[in-house]
Amino acid sequence: MQIIRDFQYFEPENRGASVAIGNFDGVHIGHQSVIELARNAAPDAPLGVMTFEPHPREYFAPDAPPFRLMRGNARAHRLEKLGVRKLYELPFNAALAGLTPEEFARNVICDGLGLSHVVVGADFCFGKGRSGTADDLVRFGQKMGFGVTVAPLMQRSENVVSSTAIRTALTEGRPGDAATMLGHWHRIEGLVIGGEQRGRELGFPTANMSIEGLHPPKFGVYAVLVDVLDGPHQGSYHGAASVGTRPMFQGEVPNIETFLFDFSGDLYGATLSVGLVDYLRPEMTFDGLGGLIAQMNADCDKARTLLGAL
């Protein structure tokens, strides 16, 4: 997949793609339907997605609590799996934010990237002050010579599928409901970083990853599916993961610590994708390490049973 980050200096041979536009946080089933419409609108054109980095919400409210379901790299990996050939990951800055809706349509979509067709959701807003609507984009397309398809909002069980609804499910410890809306397990992807090696001392060596900048799921222990994306141990594994602040050890910064079943090796520096399958229990404190170890054994037994039934 080609990643393009500049619409002002764009090679002529790369023009003509059919592109879905949006933030695509989570790449949920609603996003997937928009991408499929872009694929079908121009079957002979390269399939693309236009998104923005940083997320506009991060740009306008940098001090707001973390809300993203996935980082940019994880989003790119998911989009590539869907057959997206061109990812237009445009820098969201003052210049882009200051474009009027018509300037965005002309300077970015038409003259800049030369897109043949664009697909947006019915609630799509764009341009300075989010003043442009999907209907405006249709009008600009007719005027400037690119096709526009407006996708209806997708519903599941009478509720609109949205990143907000997925965040709510994760906050409440319902990863299965989040997966129904996502069309895949909610995954936390990142580099394995050094920890305090307490898990190794307890007989449960864990791969530690930061969740900084991501919407935190409900703190506690999960049954997980783990993909090691690179390095000598690349492959898929079952495991159990703890998300939170480690109350037994007075942790402060939330992270995710994952124990891979039947695994032996060094994962430092590898990239992991940890899929949350089921919420097992909340964070707890114990009178001593013996109680903690007994509970960890019980957690792993339960996770093995749940994952073995998938």
Characterise the protein shown here.
Keywords: ATP-binding, FAD, Flavoprotein, FMN, Kinase, Multifunctional enzyme, Nucleotide-binding, Nucleotidyltransferase, Transferase. Pathway: Cofactor biosynthesis; FMN biosynthesis; FMN from riboflavin (ATP route): step 1/1; Cofactor biosynthesis; FAD biosynthesis; FAD from FMN: step 1/1. Residues 181-308 form the Riboflavin kinase domain. With 310 residues, this protein is an alpha/beta fold. It has 10 helices and 16 strands. The protein folds into 2 domains: 2-153, Rossmann fold, CATH 3.40.50; 185-308, Elongation Factor Tu (Ef-tu), domain 3.
Keywords:
10 helices, Rossmann fold, six-stranded antiparallel beta sheet, 2 domains, elongated, six-stranded parallel beta sheet, 310 residues, Elongation Factor Tu (Ef-tu), domain 3
Helix content: 25-40%
What is the CATH topology descriptor of the largest domain? Rossmann fold
Low-confidence runs (pLDDT<50, min 5 residues)?
A: none
Instruction: Sum up the overall morphology in one term.
Output: elongated
Class computed from helices, strands and strand pairing = alpha/beta
Name the CATH superfamily assignment of the largest domain: HUPs
User: Which CATH C-level class of the largest domain is it?
Assistant: Alpha Beta
Give the total of beta strands: 16
Instruction: Give the number of domains.
Output: 2
Q: What is the arithmetic mean of pLDDT? A: 92
Beta-sheet strand percentage?
25-35%
Short précis:
It is built from ten helices and 16 strands. The protein is of the alpha/beta class. It has two domains: 152 residues, Rossmann fold, CATH 3.40.50.620; 124 residues, Elongation Factor Tu (Ef-tu), domain 3 (Beta Barrel).
